[in-house]
Amino acid sequence: MTNEWKTPPELSWLFEVDHVISPSSFGPDRCTLFPADATDEELLTTWVSADEGAYVALDEML
Length: 62
Hints:
Radius of gyration: 13 Å
Shape: flat
Largest sheet: 3 strands, antiparallel
Strand content: 25-35%
Order of helices and strands: EEHE
Strand order of the largest sheet: 1-2-3
C-alpha cells in the first residue's frame, strides 16, 4: 500500500482524508484515517484505525 493516493475527480464531493501509519514491532502496522481539515479538538473523536491486512486500497474497490 502506498502513501501517494489522491482523491479521484469523480469523488471530489467527499471530504479529504489524511492518514498516519504507525509501525509496530509486535504486530501489524496500524493505519489511522482522519479528516484532513480536522481541528485538534475534532481529532479526539473523529478517526478510525485498522491493522495492516484488515483493509484494501480504495482503487481496488472502484
